[in-house]
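step: validate -> pass
step: tokenize input -> pass
step: predict -> running
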Amino acid sequence: MTNRSDLENKEELQSHPREQGRSKAEQTIDSLSLVPCQVPQEKEKDGGVGEGPSSAPILDILPTTARNLKDKKWWQLTPEEKKQKKFNRAYQRFMLGCSFKGEYRLITLTTPESFKGDIHKAWRKWVMRMRRRGLAREYFAVKEWNARKTCVHIHAVLRLDYIGYQVAREQWRAVTGACWIQVEKVFSGKGMANYLGKYLAKGYEDNPGQRSYWYAYEWIHRKWQAFSKEMYKFGECVTPAEFELIHSLDGQEERIKYMNWRMICACMDAIRLGRIPEGTVL
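step: predict -> pass
step: emit ->
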């Protein structure tokens, strides 16, 4: 893996006359091509999940990945470990989306007891109506049932600096018949993650086999989930420094080109170290 110290001279390399006229991804790949792939070293843990003492919160504090190279298989996990793993993954994906520049809004959408439709279909319809008006883009949503299990609420974080409250309320009323919504500005990403964690815990207890959160395709970089999964198969985890590097590349095509190159390097390194037998179809 590439450490932050290996990228200190990146600006000097890009300013070289040979680098002029080339894309940022190509310059980055060439500047790192001589750096050997390294097997990440696991830090010792005192207990709990992630780094930190056993009194760590239920959500993982590592934002770049919810996977651990020494994880047990899913069927080997206890119910509590399965719950923790689901929370880690939700936290990781939420925090990656919060790393993008811009303002964020928390919107709470309720439904009346008379609403008997599918909450997911209602949400998609509401998002499409808001996107046509330019009032909704990327989002991360969590659903919650009320105490009597008679109606469901949605708590969603939207990446935008303004949302028309009256328009949002009217469109939600047209979809579900509800007449009350609430909009608040998000000031802390980690604080909001722990706030949503309450509803994730409640949803897991109500329906252990169902996921109670979802997010827009654009919430994280395109192809990021597949990239992280493949790197894990090759025995590597994406470090915070590498995510910052990918995040700094200009344009979607530049990021995909770099991620493809990294997966090729990780695959070759895995074959060299014997983690993947030669001739294996990937």
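step: describe -> Residues 1-19, 32-62 have pLDDT under 50 and may be disordered.
step: cleanup -> pass
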